[in-house]
Amino acid sequence: MTDAPRLLTRIALFSALAYVLAWLCTYIPNVNLMYFVVFSAGFLWGLLPGLLVGAIGMGLWSALNPFGPADPVVFVAQVVGMALCGVIGGLFRHGNWHRRSLGLQAVVMVGAAGLCTVLYYLPVNFADAWVYQPFWPRFTAGLVFMLWTLVSNAIAFPLLFGITKHLYARERVAV
Question: Into how many domains does the chain fold?
Answer without folding.
Answer: 1
